[in-house]
Amino acid sequence: MKLSIYKTLLLLSLTVISFHSKADSSIDAAGKIYLQAGYSSLNINYGKYSYNIGSTYTVYLGGNVNEHLGIELLGATTSTTDYSTTLNFDGIFIKPKLALNDHLEMFARIGLNELNLSTSYAGSYTGSYLAYGGGMNFYFTDDKKQYLQIDYMNWAHNNGYSLSGAGISYGYKF
């Protein structure tokens, strides 16, 4: 059975649970489902070599299970002329979180990525990888529906190379 089937089953199970839970915090009361779009600057490290692959565009679809836990789906893509790099990945993540006040929330993110990377610099890689990181959400409207997110993620680490970087996103809760 492929890993993507496991991800789909996990997502369906967690989605069912999230619809039966109650939003408890002032931030979560704004909406249980959210959509987020952003930009990341990613670096590939391969042995003693390192380079920035440029603009990576991300889209997250998420849902809050409760005030301390969210589930996210990710899609991301980039293509650069430097080193002929093409990167596409998607993933599913668990997002433990903690509201520090009514406008600030910190979180961790851990999950699985399916990554397709092709570059003249470090070769080609395809596979599933553990991804992890963390960040902050800054809610800038009184209704807590709109926010900016900053994060740092390690998207993949395997066979002497790693893919990681910082990002900024705009999110909206429904």
Characterize the structure shown.
- With 174 residues, the protein is mainly beta.
- It has a single domain, classed as Porin (Beta Barrel), CATH 2.40.160.20.
- It contains one helix and eight strands; from the N terminus they run αββββββββ.
- It has one helix at residues 3-19; strands at 33-46, 49-66, 69-80, 85-99, 104-119, 123-139, 146-158, 161-173.
- An eight-stranded antiparallel β-barrel has the order 1-2-3-4-5-6-7-8.
- A hairpin with a 2-residue loop joins β7 and β8 (161-173).
Spell out the blueprint of helices and strands.
Layout: H1 3-19, E1 33-46, E2 49-66, E3 69-80, E4 85-99, E5 104-119, E6 123-139, E7 146-158, E8 161-173
Antiparallel strand pairs: 1-2, 1-8, 2-3, 3-4, 4-5, 5-6, 6-7, 7-8
Query: How much strand?
Result: over 45%
Strand pairing plus helix content: what structural class?
Answer: mainly beta
Kindly report the oligomeric state of this protein. Answer: single chain
Summarize the amount of helix as a percent range. under 10%
Identify low-pLDDT runs.
Answer: 18-24
Helix-strand pattern, N to C? HEEEEEEEE
Q: Describe the biggest sheet?
A: 8 strands, antiparallel, barrel
The second-level CATH architecture is Beta Barrel
Total beta-strand segments: 8
Record the strand order, biggest sheet. Answer: 1-2-3-4-5-6-7-8
CATH topology: Porin
What does the overall shape look like?
elongated
Instruction: Quickly count the helices.
Output: 1
For the record, the CATH class is: Mainly Beta
Tell me, rounded to a whole number, the average pLDDT: 83
